[in-house]
Amino acid sequence: MPGKILFVNQPVSLDKRYAAQSRFANHTTPLTLCHLASLTRKHGFPSAILDAAMLGLTMEETVNKIVEEEPSYLALYATTVTIEEAAILTTEAKRWLPHLLVLVGGIHLTAVPLETMQHYRTFDIGGVGEGDLTILHVLEALEQGSHLDSVPGIVFRRGNDLILTEASEPVADLNGLPMPAFDLLKGFPRAYIPPFFGYTTLPIATAVVSRGCPAQCLFCRAGIFGDRNLRQYSPKYIVELMRYLKTKHGVRQVLFYDDDFAMFKKHTKELCERLIQADIGVTWSCNTRVIDVDQDLLQIMARAGCWQISYGVESGSQRVLNAMRKGTTLGLIDRAMRWTKEAGIRTNGYFLLGFPTETKEEIEETIRFAKRLPLDIFQCTLFTPFPSLPFSKEVEKFGKWQSKEWSDLNIFNPVFVTGELTADELEYFKRKAWREFYFRPGIQLNLLFMLWRHPAVIGHYLRTALGFAKFVFSRLDRGHGFVAGLPKPTVTAEAD
User: How many structural domains are present in the chain?
Assistant: First the structure.
């Protein structure tokens, strides 16, 4: 019988992931682990998922769970901010299970595979790129005792050497993949609740039904997996996924996390037509770009159950938008927002502060622009030079680092400041933006009206709203915006 594989979402606190904004954050569904576990299970490998972060487990408790399971393989997905916890966890697990084989993948390892494997010696095999087919090829080779050299898209150890194989090809036919193994998550879906602006009813599920992104935005890591061509699941698959979530798990709303949900209008219209015909009774929200929508498309999306669209606005300065390579204008942003509201769909705007060369005046311009737009929801993060960004190695010419520690790179900490700004000033502007947008009578009435229409979520909203108020009105945390009092984890493995 094939060896058992345990997928683990390492125990990382909300404070670590979201810094001061953890006061109104929540744990999200580990979608990548669900996709991979469904695939390994389908191919005969006993598979399980342990979401230690959502369960609130300590590192010690997580290790104990792993030891109890006695898997042959331990698989983790790690981002830049969580890679160190992955190393700590695998180090401790191997103390009890010395023959355990550790597989690690994700956007961070894909960006810097050799550097990551050199630094963390308890990672046995790293996945570089999309992991679906790669993990199957790795497991099959290990079970058969074959060499790993012929497996594309991995980095592995041979003695003291690291071997990086040729790049793997992205999955061409997404429809051939099984549905995510949501059933392997303890407490799904009620244990996973998005932030207070992300839902109007419960239970809710998150999903990603496309891969790749053609946009060239300089601040984004979307192209790190080497595919700029957008690939989408078929409308038929998406409808069946929503039907499965409704009938099997009682889901009433789906939040699509795709980078560009509505890029292909024909695909989106067909999906909406199928949803209208199927009448599943599930509402949904999505992310897309302002250049992708028109009035006809928005009207049919609304009829198909779309209640909110999130747009990447980023800045209220045209100069900064051009520097980011957003490929849009302030006028197009305003027009898309107004069309969306006219269709009866709520609007959410993502904004980014601290992009290289951005000035204080341009940040103020962004705050004023956000307040002029017909926005219902506002979200704001900070520019972070991840290892995966094309110009990360050259970013110092635009400003200075406050911290290069991987564990600090979470888009909420002011780890890099540009020009005349200081870290404290950047943190101040971030909180000012949130405060000035939300604490206006019109927005407050808007939120109250939404709660009146959706009373089932009032309790959840009030709990997170209190944390939000503390965030925007509290003094700056010590350490230039970093959460005070949080000890940095220490790797106890044989790390360089």
Answer: 2
